[in-house]
Amino acid sequence: EGEILLPEIYETYVRGLTPSELSELLTKRYLEFMNDPEITVRIEKFKPLRVSIQGEVRNPGTYKFPSYSTMDTLIYGYDQLSKQGNQSNIENNKIESINSQFSNDNFIKKNTDKITTISNAIRRAGGTTSKTDLSRIAIIRDIPIGQGGGKKRAIVDLTSFINQSDPTNDIRLFDGDRIFIPKLA
Length: 185
Fold this sequence. Notes:
This protein has helices spanning 19-30, 78-84, 87-91, 95-101, 104-107, 118-124, 159-164, and strands spanning 3-6, 10-13, 49-55, 61-65, 137-142, 151-156, 178-181.
């Protein structure tokens, strides 16, 4: 709903604030009741993402995706390093020579399974049609109040993702994002 209910200050509108902005706002509000309040805001659990996708997809609509997980998994290739006999390089902080022996995919991996992207939304909406123009996908996103508020529009070209498996433009989606996929001209 965008509001929180707290002792002494009662209802406070917080929609569109980042955790640090909310912490600053609550600190100011509690100055009336406390001397030097120290308030830290931590997100316990993210709500599921709701993303609207319209235009040239098989099933346009609003879709829910699981909430983002802040637990990024780093996999350190210790077993691979010990097989190469380069443990002394680690001890001597010579990571550069080790990096050159392994591709980044094998050395450190970041788990992105919980991040929702444009391609996830297209899949959830049943895929594209024969008239879909993936070179002009429009994404409209709400901007936090602390960054000026309002909405921001971006045009994304997803053809490199489809043709060359280049994930550069398969950007992360956030709650409330609206996607419009146009017809071929």
